[in-house]
Structures are given as structure tokens and as C-alpha cells.
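Support reply, case 0932

Customer input (verbatim):
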Amino acid sequence: MTHTYARPWKAGPFDVRLPFVHYRFEWRDYSQGLIMCAVDLGAIPLMQELLGMPFEAALAIVVLNGVLYLLHHMLGDPVIPGWITPAIPLLTLYLNEFPVEQRVHALIAFQLLLGAFSIALGATGLAAKVVRVVPNALRAGIVIGAGIAAVQGIFAAGGRFDTFPWTITISVGLAFFLMYSNAFKRLQLRSRAAEFIGSLGILPAILIAVVVAPLFGEAPWPQIEWGISTPDFATMFSQYTVFGVGLPPLMMFVTAIPTVLAAYIVVFGDVLQARAVLAEADEFRPDERVVYDPNRAHLIFGGRNVLMSIFGPDNAMCGPLWAAMHVTTTERYKRGPKSMQSIFSGAGRFRWGTNTGLFLLPIVSLLEPILGVALALTLLIQGFVSIKVGILEAASRLDLGVAGIIAAILATKGAAWGFAAGILLCGLIYTADFFKSDSDGVFADKPATKDDARER
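Our regenerated output:
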């Protein structure tokens, strides 16, 4: 007997969905979330290095952010949210301009401005218009550049690949094989075991890393601890929030504006990615109409940034999309209702799983040695998806050439330079047709088929 779930409750721009009432329990996504909390925990070394924050206080910020992740699917945004990952290097450079004792204030000012700006775009309806009016070449360049930047950070001198060369090679290779190999897709049609492994997304790659890293001497064997983790909210509130350090001076808000605009460019790319991946999945699931509303998404992740800036400033930031897991979830969603009842059930149960994992000390201690690998894995998959989606945003070969220049400048000089160069190039090349699509039939006019979508 098929269970019938209630329709979402309307609440202004939001569609409220609650577990068990509006969507079913997806155990695969929940169990994957238990382990993939490793990526959420990967923010802890970032905060320790930049802000000098104790592990338990940083864990408190990760836990608070994890609770806010639930707002997306519960309010009708059909994505798995995450960090603004490609913008982390931009924010790090900005914060490093301040002495350590001023960085918390600088981070508060930045994140509060970013959140307020995003809310303003969503509330006025400008977010959806921005997505529509930005030229194809500029959109493509931003998304491709963000993907290249994500990959560059892994392989740069002194990056995570230098620390975990064998572990990253093996775990990333396994993840790409399970997610994108045509040979493995054919095997899944013949083997239930392969189908089961494929349904687990990148979870097998994370578990392999736990074993491979010690075998190659790239990390110690995990020391399993039992019990419940103890995030230190008291230290977080007293030393790293406005309740302890006060509001930043006005000048910090002014100096944060260029970095806020640069970070928003990356956010804009994530919004494009989310829309493109869901549109692709929609071809396979006529049983569910999934509506991705950029205005609603801006209200939610903008609100998350405002709340975090006050209660737990986070230098990983609050973004609209965790690209790697969003793609993993939608790939299984494409297989039909038996595999996943709704995109909201998959996204929701995954995020319930990550929140549970953050409190389970055996899981936290198991994954702690390979947090850098988990972060590298999600960055590389995000890079792959960003470059693929960015190329598909181009409507012509000319668009793609312009996008390549924009992407290269963005990846090497930063988002602000990339955006400025993109506007200049589009203005010089397209002149009066700046806002028009320059289709030559190679990209945009090519009819999409289910086989095309499956390859993508």
C-alpha cells in the first residue's frame, strides 16, 4: 500500500514541509548524511587557523549552522544547502588583512552584509530577474571560474593533495566511477549489489579514505571515542559573537562591501547550478513538479547568514547549495519514486543525518583524521559539476570563448576581477546585444534528450 503524504502548507513565499507528514524517511540519504557530516566538520580547521578558535567552540558553530540547513527543504527549497565554498579563499584573503583580534568583527560585518543583501534581492523579486538578465557568457564564465577555483585550491602548492595524495586519488577516483561511469551504470542494471552501492553516493569513497589514509601513512588510524560530542556554546557566545565582542565599527561594514559583492557572484553561480541540476532531473520525474524559486532561496540562505553573523559567525558562509551532494541526491531521484519518494525526502533526510552525525562522538572521532580528504572530495565534485553546468550555460561558441577568459581571470585574480572583466568583454563584443542570447545552434538550440541529461 502506497503512503499518501500531505500537501505542503503555504506560508507566504514558503511551502512548509515536515518529516513523516509531507515526506518519507529515506534511510540511504540519512545514513549517508551520518558520515558526510565529515565535510561539515571540515569547517573546523578553517576556523581554528583563521580565528584561533578552540575545537569545541568551532564545533558549536558547525552544529548551529547544521540546524539552519534544515530550513531549506522545510520551507520549500528543493536543494541540499552548504557553504559558499569557492568564496572561502576570497574571504580568507580579506580577513587576513586584519590582525587576529579584529577578525571576528570583520567576519561579523561581512556575513551580516551578505545576508542582508541576499534577503533584499529575494524580497524585492530581483533575484530571479538577475538570473534571467545576466548574459549567457557572463553566467557561464562565473560558474566555470568557480569550478576551476575549487579544483585549484586542492592542487595548489601546500594544498590538501600534497598532504593526502594517495587517499585523494583513490577516494576521488572511486567517487567519480560510482557517480559518472557508464560502465558502472550498466552494471547497476544487472547487479543488485552494484545498484545498492551506487545508491550510496559518495559514502563509499569517504569510508575508503578512512582506511587508505593510514595505510599510506597520510593520516593516523582513528581513535574511536564513545558518547555524545560536546560543542562549547558558552565559549562561542562569549568570545566569537556580538554578545561577547560587541558590534563591529561602521568602517568594517564599509570595507567589507567589495568582498560581499565578490562572494555574491559565487552565490549567483550556485543558484544557476541548483536550477540547472533540478531542471535536468525534472525530465526523469514527471510525477513530481519541482519548482526552484531563486527569490525564495535568497530569503532562506540570506536569513541563515544574518542569523549566523549574530549567533555564530562562520567563515565557510551559508550558501544556497552543496553541489556534490545535490548532484548525488538528484542522480538517485532520477531513478523514480521507488528509489526516492520526493526530492524533499532525499534532501531533508540527508540533512537530518548530518545533524545527527555531529552529535555522535564515534562518528566524529572516526572521521576526524580524514576531514581534509572529505573537503577535497566535495570540492573536486563541485568543480566537475560547475565546469559542466557552466559550459552548458553558453549559447554559442563565442559565448564559450568569452566565458573561458572570464573563468581564467576569476580563478586567478578573484571574483571581483572576473566579474569586471566579464562586463567589459561582453560590452565590447556584444555591444547593443549585451542582454541578448547569441545562439549559433551549437549549444542552446541543440535539443536535450534523456540520454544527454543522463550523460551530464
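We compared this against your earlier run and they match. Two observations from our side: Strands lie at 9-11, 14-16. The two ends are 35 Å apart (CA to CA). Please reopen the case if you see a mismatch on your end.
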